[in-house]
Amino acid sequence: MRTQKALLVGTVTIALVFLVSLAFAGHGGGKAHEAVHIEGGEYVSIAGSILDSHDEPIAEAMIEVRLNGHAVAHVETGRNGHYMAEFMVEKDAMETASFEMEVRKASFGAKTVDFAGSEFAKKGDHYYLIEKIALDRVLGPAFWISTVVFIIAYALIAFELLHRTIAAMLGAAFMLVLSYTIGTINPEFRIFSFEFAIHAIDMNVVFLLMGMMIIVGVLKNTGVFQWCAYISYKVAKGKVFLLTVILMIFTAVSSAFLDNVTTMLLLTGVAIEIAVSCSLNPLYLLIPLVLASNVGGTSTLIGDPPNIMIGSYCGLTFMDFVIALALLCCVGMLVMFVYTKLVWGKDYAKAQASVANVEEFTAELKEKYKIYDPTLLTYGLLILGFTVFLFLSHGYWHMEVSIAALTGASVLFTVGILTKKVDMIHLIEKDIEWPTLMFFIFLFVLVGAVEEAGLLALIADWILELSKGNFLMAMTLILWVAAIMSAFVDNIPFTATMLPIVAYLTKVIPGSENTLWWALAVGACFGGNGTIIGASANVVTMGIAESKGYKISFIGFMKTAFPYMILSIAIAQAWIMIFRPT
Predict the structure, then answer these.
(1) Contact call for residues 79 and 63 (beta carbons, < 8 A)
(2) 250 and 383: one domain?
(3) Which letter does DSSP use for residue 28 in this model?
(4) Which of 144, 242, 377, 581 could cross-link 222 (Cys pair, CB 3.0–4.6 Å)?
């Protein structure tokens, strides 16, 4: 416990120091060259945009304008790639003037454009020119450094060689400090700026997760989740397979409206106790539950972190996810029931036979798993219902889902404090997973760095070339690559990496609309079922089981879970091909 608390405090402290330090560094940098006033002279304006080979804007490109070989203006493009250079020239000098405009940006080839004064439009004593310039990417020092750092950080995260929050923070810190030190001396080493790093952080995702953590942190003080497990056993009447199916349904639905990690945190301990009481290996119950949590979480915007990231990135609403994926997830659950029966059916039959007195055991569970704060539960369910309503209708209000989550969290938190039902300090310290939130922040910075340096553009071009612009091929590649990759590495950083790639492919492949986003969502979420490290819910659940003496190996989990993952992705492939959800 002390070690975990020390890690939490240390992580947050280092992160705050890191961000404050960079805030001071972020104020540095050059300024635009101001036009020198020339008495009786004429104003000249050159405006336009700088784009890459994908017609995407290039931010922070440095532009130098030279008149007859002498620099007259220095400007930098904004986030939209636009620029405007203004300067003055001697009166009547435009007729014979020659101009050069040089554009430079790390990871792009420098480009110089020549034009004569006679090409400018004139209004009064003001000359205008609009110039759009496309730059080609090059694999320079910034590209290779950012790519290597990203891969190292990714490996540290995927194979748990270092805590994922620390790994992401180290990678982000290294790229930023390199950009502000060596990058200041040699611009080819400048990966990105502090301002770009801040812009890359998707606070909608961060605030949504924080809000849901607070809501669940308050609700778990009521005992409602343990009570639901008791009701499940009561309804099943001692039939272990039926109990498993009921718990899987409850887990899937809870994961759809809370999130799969939180759901498994709340249910794992209870499931282990019930399994032990039935003389059933708890792993035979926990594995189906964690598979159900990942499938159920796929059906909504807030059910699984990859969906939160996808929805926030491309503006898909809660109902968009439900309409496109809910029925597919229901089919996946039905197949999972059959699969569970085939794999563990004999074990469930033995466990059922071992329960001598079902009614007596049910009475024990009733006594043990009670709702011990019905008042707080009533308030909580009302506020949660209102929050879910905002989730369902946020598209109508043009409101980010994080606002709905924070609204529900703040109201429920306030109720808990005023009624003295909730310990504020305990909830803030224990129930809000600060390392997870910090991990998301630094992960967004890492992905923003490789996006700026050109790695993601390179991958997008490769997928486009391999698919030859064919929708079916592109969809298949995204779905299966996402599934296989998410099985062996955490699906959160993988999804963050794929977001800008899929965004580009949706623009250049005719008829793709939102379908490629659904392929990515299903691939990342269903694929997380493949191995024990494929999704955060898997890691959390098996970690709790191991702490209670029920350990399963990487291969042991994979033997039972990976075949279902392949089966579910095949079903998803057929579903998307037939119904083409948009």
Answers:
(1) no
(2) yes
(3) -
(4) 377
* Residues in CB range of 443: below 8 A, 6 or more apart: 168, 492, 493, 496
Q: Please say whether the beta carbons of 367 and 223 come within 8 A.
A: no
Residues 6+ positions from 84 with CB-CB distance below 8 Å: 45, 46, 47, 75
Closest CA to 156 of 145, 166, 147, 146: 166
Residue that is last in its domain, among 114, 134, 154: 134
In a domain, 18, yes or no: no
Q: Count of domains in the chain? A: 2
With CA atoms as reference, report the closest residue to 217 among 270, 259, 178: 259
β-bridge partners, 134: 51
Residue 462: half-sphere exposure toward Cβ, Cα within 13 Å: 9
Q: Is 47 helix (H, G, I), strand (E, B) or coil?
A: strand
Percent of the chain with pLDDT over 90: 44
Q: Which residue has the tokens 């409850």?
A: 250
In this structure, the dihedral spanned by the alpha carbons of residues 113, 118, 121 and 124, taken in order and rounded to 10 degrees, is 130
Q: Do residues 535 and 490 touch, judged by C-beta distance below 8 A?
A: yes
CB–CB of 426/228 below 8 Å? no
Residue 118 burial (C-beta neighbours within 10 Å; 0-12, 13-18, 19+): exposed
Considering the domain boundaries, does residue 127 fall inside one? yes
Q: Mapping DSSP to helix (H, G, I), strand (E, B) and coil, where does residue 581 land? A: coil
Secondary structure of 401-453 in HEC code, one letter for each residue: HHHHHHHHHHHHHHHHHHCCCCCHHHHHHHHCCHHHHHHHHHHHHHHHHHHHH
For 43-61, b/e burial (b = at least 16 CB within 10 A) is bbbbebbbbbebeeebbbb
Query: How many residues belong to the chain?
Result: 582
Q: What pLDDT score was predicted for residue 112?
A: 95
Judgement on whether residues 115 and 242 belong to the same structural domain of the protein: no
- Across 319-343, b (16+ Cβ under 10 Å) vs e yields bbbbebbeebbeebbeebbebbeeb
Q: Are 521 and 312 in contact (CB under 8 A)?
A: no
> What is the amino acid identity at position 417?
I
Spatial separation of the C-alpha atoms in residues 325 and 265, rounded to whole Å: 25
Q: What are the backbone angles phi and psi of residue 532, rounded to the nearest 5°?
A: -70, -20
Q: Are strands 82-89 and 42-51 parallel, antiparallel or unpaired?
A: antiparallel
Q: Per-residue confidence at 430, pLDDT binned at 50, 70, 90? A: confident
pLDDT digits (tens, 9 = 90+) for 223-271: 887 787 778 878 888 788 999 999 999 999 989 987 787 788 778 878 8
- CA Rg, the chain, in Å? 28
